[in-house]
């Protein structure tokens, strides 16, 4: 796995690779699904906003929606494999 970094608000933030961060991310996503912020196959805009906000609040790390969505998609692929 690579340790890619994306510039976000002038700072480079490494992609989510730590098991603890992935677990926190999954827990937050599950909570948003249960709240109805994923009515079909995709999270709503409000759902992604809450995921980003809660993830930053719990970890102190700010990731863009794109980074979090990429991680979500990668985790789905791993799960299906």
TrEMBL record:
Domain of life assignment: Eukaryota
Cited Pfam families: Myb_DNA-bind_3
Domain (Myb/SANT-like) ranges: 23-80
Protein name: Myb/SANT-like domain-containing protein
